[in-house]
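Quick entry between incubations.
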Amino acid sequence: MMQNSTSGRISAYIGLGSNLANPVEQIKSARGAITQIPGLQELAFSSLYHSAPMGPQDQPDYVNAVMGIATDLPPIELLRCLQQIENEQGRVRKDQRWGARTLDLDVLLYGDQIIDLADLIVPHMGLADRAFVLYPLFEIAPHIQVPGKGTIADLLAKCPRNGLTILEHE
Ligand code: ROI
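Done. Structure below.
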């Protein structure tokens, strides 16, 4: 199925998060921008979820979602395109680690590949213990394997919902 090779269309999953400047609109606008990336097609989009911040608590709650895509962009090019969209939507990188942000786009999974580059680690490091990633991912891809970590269903069973609620059904 070419999921393992270096060329051809790969299914990948992108995590979206925002907790500033109208998060629902940030997520919807990011979805539109991602769909415009050449060499990429949307396959699925989760509901929008409302989540309490993980990390510093002195920041607003988040809106999170997960998007499934098919792409022939290499992972690092996909990352660069996503970073450009973050910047275009007013992302300012502050000194505080894990602080508030208008838009965060993460490559969660890229086919069944394990990627360990300076700028990009896939599967995403927080994937297994973040309810705001696992629940939307499970919604759109209940049968996938997370390379090196097991099935999404197994991971989900070990991850409390943590107050995560659906804000807007897809
Ligand atoms: N917390 C939540 N709930 N959602 C996020 O998307 C999110 N992103 C982050 C940190 C700051 C770790 N906390 C988060 O990067």
